[in-house]
Amino acid sequence: MQIYLVGGAVRDKLLGLEPQDRDWVVVGATPEEMLAQGFRPVGKDFPVFLHPETGEEYALARTERKTAPGYHGFEFHADPSVTLEEDLRRRDLTINAMAEAADGTLIDPFGGRDDLNNGRLRHVSPAFTEDPVRLLRVARYAARYARWGFRVAHATNALMRQMVESGEVDALVPERVWQELSRALSEATPARFFEVLRGCGALARIFPELEQLFGVPQPKQHHPEEDTGVHTLLVLEQAARLSPEPQVRFAALVHDLGKGTTPREEWPRHIAHEHRGVALVEQLCERLRVPADYRDLALLVTRYHGVYHRAEELRATTLLELLEHLDAFRRPQRVEQFLLACEADSRGRPGFENQDFAQPGLIREALRIAQAVDVKAVVAAGYSGKAVGEELRRRRLAALKAWRRDEAED
């Protein structure tokens, strides 16, 4: 029995990063031998075991054969005769197909270390095309390592395009798409994920609502970048600067989907795109089974980002309505998420990345003033039941009106 550290842990060690998880491959062993040593079996498709003390995964070396479309269509073969190189050959990228022996020796049969040094994301073998999830994983790695200049190898991009053209990518199920998308949103450069997908033609198949934004013009005086798709990725880039929360980044990503359905005769203006965008965000979230917290914030940003941008000219009544729509008095943290996504929208334009904007501070101040109205004072004044809420709203509105009046005088 020989045991090797494999995959991401080896890759991250070579990059000087702290490995998040450690996976092991066991060569020359049977399931019975693993059980005899106290390993706990997991996984139905192939023999994977948990270490009795560390809980880390130990998998028997295995090969695989494609038997049907999609990522479930594989037949696995594991026995003591399978070599380490045969096991590594079935992996997606060369940077993930390295192993480390117990004495620290690196086993690198496919040139993964050179690809790490050269910032190259390259497939191990033509079998790459057999699993459509790999296409998403490559895009996610591109998002993770973009800050170091990593690029997808031309030959790998060609295989990814082949997967799109052959229809293999259509076998992706919503759960796996969302799993990779949500991970990509947490990476250092999430916009790169979508650039890579677009570069191989997969964006149109997986995220058609995003693909249709490219080539749609916007007024140049407000959007020097003009193209709505370009703007969307710039907004996502700014959202990544402003917040580590993937919910904020997702809301920023989808906020302008309505512009993709603007009639051509109305270009470059996009009247009521917020309203049209709501249905598209709902459609995308339902298709990918997006969690409710992502969906709800995305819908609020889509529907009300135009209101946000006009904050300086809003009447007190409209400001209060915005706070109520955001459920601000019960969930002030969601107001912060909303403001960050909308601020990313303002900054996602060439020349505006580092500009100061008044809207976030103004809306935060409106919330502070409205929150200062004491519900206990309302109850003490003799109101009860439904009348408490009505009087509370009246007092909040009066406070906001007094504040806006003071602002107008200043």
Overview of this structure, please?
- The chain has 410 residues and is α+β, with helices and mostly antiparallel strands.
- The protein folds into 4 domains: 1-115, Beta Polymerase, domain 2 (2-Layer Sandwich); 119-206, Hydrophobic Seed Protein (Orthogonal Bundle); 239-371, no CATH class; 373-409.
- It has helices at 8-14, 31-36, 84-89, 112-117, 133-145, 154-166, 174-185, 191-199, 203-206, 208-211, 228-242, 246-254, 273-288, 292-309, 316-325, 332-347, 359-371, 375-380, 386-409, and strands spanning 2-6, 23-27, 40-42, 48-50, 57-60, 62-66, 74-78, 99-100, 106-107, 120-121, 151-152.
- Helix 12 (246-254) packs across helix 16 (332-347).
- The longest helix has 24 residues, at 386-409.
- The chain is elongated, with a radius of gyration of 26 Å.
- The model has no long low-confidence stretch (mean pLDDT 94).
